[in-house]
Amino acid sequence: MHPSPTRTAARHLPAAPPSVDLLAVGQLFLDVLYGVLPAAPSPGQEVFTDRAALLPGGIANFAAAGSALGARTAIAARIGNGPISRITRALLEDSGIDTTRLLVDPGWDLQITSALPYAGDRALVTGGSAPAIAAAAAPDPHGAASIALHLGPEEMPWLAASDARIWADVGWDASGAWDPGLLRHLEHCEGFLPNADEAMAYTRTDSPSAAAHRLAERVPIVVVTRGAEGALGIDARSGLEVDVGAPALGPVDPTGAGDTFGAALIVLLDRGLGFRDALEAACLAASARAAGLAGPGITPGPSQLAALARQHRLGCTGALEALAATFVSDD
User: Fold this and answer.
1) Which spans in 114-225 are helix H?
2) Burial status of residue 294 (CB atoms within 10 A of its CB: 0-12, 13-18, 19 or more)
3) E strand or H helix at 167, and its extent?
4) pLDDT in tens, 258-301
């Protein structure tokens, strides 16, 4: 039997108020991001773009987006002690992200991913050796209000011991197996945030809506993202189902946009926004990052998001304006 989705999985009472709003747990990379290209490069061709950025990637996208929205964020991942790892750690710390839970693998260095955006999507090239274990081994989950993680096939006994609200995401399964056994971890989760392809593959369904309803049998909140078409969310506790679109904000690089959506949704729900407002605002945050409105790979802060919501006459405008008013400065 699946756990009841009508309530959050039981949590131990925290011994003290959380010191971190959002802890991101998973695999870390160093990303090289470029401006949107007119087309895919041809063999022997050199293509120039007027935008480029070097940013922590992978699970760091969750932490960076949360930090941009005013959350106290930390990251738990494996990192090496080579030059790429040193650059990545410095970039994380410059963004105000707590790196004390990083686990150092001596003699190893992080992989680098280059993202080439064109035709509304992107191609990725990742170089370097993968860590022996992708995720941080038994990260310390204590002291966090919410945890965002990428699920993997490995056992995660620490999930049951955590007193945080756990939000799960998944990555592409290159093996093509899409083993539903991975969904066993949802027993300990507050929410699940797959994209449409992932959701349909794991549930063996043929539409995002059917996949969302199947997953809502397992977890209190499920949100299926659909890229430029927005997101579909179900709160199984109340029975509320929300379908929101994503505003078109310009040429896009979708690298990290899904993680940005997830982080924004978590932080905005934790800040007290209603389900529909948080879902709509998270789509706006992901679209703004994809369009590079605050810079390549950067999530706009609350004031810029509120201005965008007002410009596009979104229902979440008032909620974002109220949130922005609580910040002395951002963006």
Assistant:
1) 158-161, 196-203, 208-215
2) middle
3) strand 165-169
4) 899 999 999 999 999 999 999 999 999 999 988 888 888 889 99
Residue 25 · residue 38 · CB < 8 Å: no
The C-alpha atoms of residue 158 and residue 166 are separated, in whole angstroms, by 11
Q: Give me 3's structure tokens.
A: 């756990």
Identify the three-state secondary structure at position 75: strand
Q: How far, CA to CA in Å, does 202 sit from each of 126, 194, 195, 196, 215?
A: 25, 10, 11, 10, 9
Separation CA 25–CA 283 (nearest Å): 22
The verdict on pTM exceeding 0.70 is yes
How many percent of the chain have pLDDT more than 90? 63
| Alpha carbon separation from 242 to 25, 137, 267 (Å, rounded) | 27, 36, 18
The pLDDT, as a whole number, for residue 99 is: 95
Q: What are phi and psi of 287, to 5 degrees?
A: -65, -40
Distance CA 139, CA 274 (A): 30
Question: 150-175: b or e for each residue (b if 16 or more CB lie within 10 Å)?
Answer: bbbeeebebbeebbbbbbbbbbeeee
Q: Whole-angstrom Cα distance, residue 238 to residue 226?
A: 23
* Lowest-confidence segment of 11-15, 40-44, 224-228 by average pLDDT: 11-15
Going by DSSP bridges, is the β-strand pair 191-192/221-225 parallel, antiparallel, or unpaired? parallel
State residue 210's pLDDT score.
Answer: 97
Query: b/e per residue, 203-233, with b = 16+ CB within 10 A?
Result: bebeebbebbbbbbebbbbbbbbbbeebbbb
Structure tokens at 258: 């899904």
Residue 7 in tokens: 């309530």
